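Standup notes, protein team

Yesterday: finished cleaning the Diacronema lutheri set.
Today: ferredoxin--NADP(+) reductase structure.
Blockers: none.

Input for ferredoxin--NADP(+) reductase:
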Amino acid sequence: MLALICGAAAFNGGTRAPLAARSRVVMQSAMDEPWNSGIISKTVFTAEQLAASMGGAKAPTKMSATATASGGQDFLEATPYWDTSNIPLNTYKNKAPFTGKVVSCKRMVGPQATGETCHIIINHEGKMPYWEGQSYGVIPPGTNPKNGKPNSVRLYSIASSRYGDDMTGKTGSLCVRRAVYVDPETGKEDDSKKGVCSNFLCDAKPGQELTMTGPSGKVMLMPEQDPKTDLIMVATGTGIAPYRGFIRRLFVEKTPAGAAYKGQAWLFLGVANSDSLLYDDEWQASLKTHPSNFRLDYALSREQNNKAGGKMYIQDKVEEYADEIFAKLEKGAHMYFCGLKGMMPGITEMLERVAKSKGLAWEEFLEGLKKKGQWHVEVY
């Protein structure tokens, strides 16, 4: 399991969808995610407390040793900053893991959300650096009842920039949905089938030790060499995680990548309803500070209808802008997908249908995107 996926809502023409609460994250239930039957999320944490990310203490107001004299975030950069030849990779492995500590675990969704999602900040002491788009592995305590062996590692996309939410370069964040199984006949939760690692993480308290591996992955890295490159980011649920790192790097922190960026980063997020939105306050802030470079569209399956009158799923929202998206791809844009693998058939079927309507051979077009490194998929 890596990150998880998100359902969607719409942000059109500058009109903001009504939200029951700000700074919230969501996971879908089987009702809204037919590909995810039986599993729903159960945890909720508010994001307002991120300023108190260090065990309840206020976040530092000065960068001190974490920033240069110019006030920029560049002490964890490559030379040049876009060079990926020496990214941190598999620093810690299963047989020699790292022990991190939980700084905070906060519920992020509102009362009407279909499940529970947590934002978890982990102290890695600067010993487990990572880049945006990579994943951490977490090995939950205990043994697998099926074979009696220690629990295996679970992968989670990292939901912060390399500098961490506190910008010290010593923390990393995860966006985790509590996975529970509901018996379709009785309607009751079956604890024997709940997600071992997600429940362990969502129940974690400050100071809790975590056995960790990684960082891993190169598929979801940003293409920073050409600062004019457009990014199209599609997420369902906690699949939002890597994009939070992207957006913080480009529009929140004073990084060389952010200073150089001239393209457009377009985020599509799918969740069940307004209470299920993830990191909405952060996206709204970036829209205000970078209106020409950041774009946002939500697909809310329980609150919106697609053009056929059915529920608005992520592929339906992307299809509304198919002409723009294909035009961007033809000009070199990179397209990202992150979430449960069940999201991909609907999206690829829609893209293939649109490609045919444009007289394009979809398989050939897709193969060209892959060869040029423009197609990024991390599903599980």
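Follow-up from PR in the comments: The longest helix spans residues 344-357.
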